[in-house]
Amino acid sequence: MDEPSEIETVDGRAIAGRNHRSGIAVASQEPVLQPADARRWRDRHFYRAFTLPAVSVAVGTTVLPLALLLFWSLVDQRSGEPTLRYYVQSLASPYFARTLLTTIVMAAGVTAVSIVLALPVAYVLARHTLLRSVLVPVISVPRMLPFVVIGYAIVLLLAPYTGVMNKSLIAAGILSEPVFILFGWPGQAIAFGYAGVVIAIAILTGVFMTVDPQLEDAAVTLGAGRLKAVLTVSMPLAAPGTVAAAALIFSTVVTSYAIPVMLNSRTPYMVSVLIYNNLYSLQERHLAYAQAIIVTALAVSVTTAAQFFLSRFGSRR
Question: Where is the ABC transmembrane type-1 domain (predicted)?
């Protein structure tokens, strides 16, 4: 009679055992993957391998530079010892605080105006296929242009003496002298607003295309007007896309460099210009690194808050 033995199992499959009385090991039975399991395992690792180039590029161009930036911002530029004084100096500086506050106000204002202007345009484009096929390619062109090109276009448009707008208004007799709005916060706001509206239209058009028009028709059938149906049905359903577009525009404006440098006056209205001055003009490199980390943390916190809102909103729906 066979002696009882203890069998170890994994997922119901015997892998090893030992006889109680004799202590003789029982031959192990290795787990065998079924063909379907093996195929799923192979497919999962195959697709993961395809993400390695993208992950490597992201680490090399984003994570590693930010890590180095953070490291050097915590090192004294002269003695090489660890320190937090650059963060303390930045946060305690009224000049940096005022410039950062101006940047936040600029980004928030541009974001709000861009969303308000883009919502009706995006809704119309989403509901009219022919109009969308004609205008979307035209609207998408500025998205492919760098901010340097957009800034130069604003210079050609708003320059005091050579700009198209001032020359046209003076020639028409509307103005007697040119308007100086280019090199200051109005010119920067116009440039950022132009770019922000384009981004918002591109995102919100796709969002409204996912909203079923029959929901609006049902609201109209129940007695709501067309405008009320849009405001109470389509707009709330487009809220996640609106939040995502707003977060993207805000982060883009806060971290922008090309437009503030091109359209900056003697007083830096944007924090990126202040960081540039500390880095190259004053040679306060580690102070500039700390200020760059502060701005990056601001942008990341906004996008994280937007992502948190989207996850909560989606789970409720």
Answer: 100-306
Closest CA to 143 of 55, 61, 236, 206: 206
Q: Are residues 55 and 157 in the same domain?
A: no
User: Which residue segment(s) compose the domain that 38 sits in?
Assistant: 4-73
pTM here?
0.75
pLDDT in tens, 190-212: 888 888 888 899 889 888 888 88
CB atoms within 10 A of CB 301: 11
Do 154 and 16 lie in one domain? The reply is no
Whether residues 49 and 192 share a domain: the answer is no
Cross-strand bridge partners of residue 26: 17
Q: How far apart are CA 309 and CA 306, in angstroms?
A: 5
Q: Is the pLDDT of residue 32 over 60?
A: no
- Sheet of 13-19: strand order equals 5-10, 13-19, 25-26
Residues with Cβ within 8 Å of 40's Cβ and at least 6 positions away in sequence, in order, are none
Q: Which residues, including other chains, have CB under 8 Å from residue 76's CB and lie 6 or more apart?
A: 82, 83, 85, 286
Rounded to whole angstroms, the Cα distance separating 310 from 82 reads 39
Q: How confident is the model at residue 316 (pLDDT cuts 50, 70, 90)?
A: low
User: Domain tally for the chain?
Assistant: 2
